[in-house]
Amino acid sequence: MNVAVTETATLDEIEATRAEVRIIMTEEGLTQADIAREAGIPYGTFTPFMGGTYKGDNAGIAVKVRRWLETRRERKRTHAVLPVAPVFVETPTALNIIEIMSFAQVAPDMGVVVGGAGLGKTTAIEKYRKENSNVFVVTAEPCLSTPNNMLSAIADELGVIERRNAFLSRAIVNRLRGAGALLVIDEAQHLSSQALDQLRTIHDKARCGVIVAGNESVFARLQGGETKGAQFAQLHSRVGMRIVQAQPRAKDICALIAAWGIDGKSEEAALLKVIARKPGALRGLTKVVRVASMLASGVGEPLAAGHIRRAWAQLSSSSSLDEAA
């Protein structure tokens, strides 16, 4: 049942809106709390509105609910034509990252994964975590740059309840020691040099594997780029296996193109290979394919080079893929 969105509502439209919401709740298992939150309506208002006991502006609430219904329908229409990206593609780089993680966990050792944006680091990390026990992943962000904030995030991931700064590192070490664990810090470029050295301390005391993943600035600091002091000599000497790769390999790109079901010798593939060499790499390729597929579906056409060029123009600062190449 579709109800047109207007700025007012009659009694019949209000009841029709309630009826449509009840159908959605029954079919999809949504609660009134779920819908109130998504529609931006206070729960204490939405519940009596649905029960027909609300003493306020029922027509105004109905308008908000109908806007939510229409937004939801539009989202479904878009989702229906938007292709789902491959969850994991076994690219040579991804397999290399997984190999380093496996070695670090078993050894135990410190490993470093350094690469440009869109290389597939996070996807490979998540793949390894899903398939192995005692793998703990923390995604760093600017607010976690200090040792204490980083330790707090690690404690959350490990389920450690200790919150006193003076005892936090000890509690984390006790949780990891003897567990055959692997601690992974993704987006580690956000960590301060002191926080990175704290990871070294955890590795030494817990005898657990540690993986530091991020961009090139991480590796520079691990090599003592900011200082040549003994602190960073200790840190750098702990690093075992590593991968330092700015761009995806040619085989990485071809594997992802094939995973999307695109002929590797086609004009479409040639354009996507150019895109994968740009900032954003494999992530950028996936974004372009999804938008291009939506554009093609919108006019009932199979994916073609023209759709890829249009998608690139919408997603990049360049109006032409040829200019960008």
3D structure, described in words:
The chain has 325 residues and is α/β, with parallel strands linked by helices. It has helices spanning 11-28, 32-39, 43-51, 58-81, 92-106, 121-131, 147-158, 165-176, 193-206, 216-222, 230-238, 250-259, 267-276, 281-298, 305-315, 321-324, and strands spanning 110-115, 135-139, 182-186, 209-214, 239-245. The protein has a 5-stranded parallel β-sheet with strand order 2-3-4-1-5, sandwiched between helices. The two termini are 48 Å apart. The relative contact order is 0.11.
Summarize this entry quickly.
With 325 residues, the chain is of the alpha/beta class.
State Rg.
Answer: 26 Å
Determine the mean pLDDT: 89
Beta-strand proportion:
5-15%
Outline type: flat
Kindly report how far apart the N and C termini lie: 48 Å
Strand count, sense and closure of the main sheet?
5 strands, parallel
Structural class: alpha/beta
Q: How many beta strands in the DSSP annotation?
A: 5
List low-pLDDT spans.
1-6
Order of helices and strands: HHHHHEHEHHEHEHHEHHHHH
Helix run count: 16
What share of residues is helical?
55-70%
Largest beta sheet: strand ordering: 2-3-4-1-5
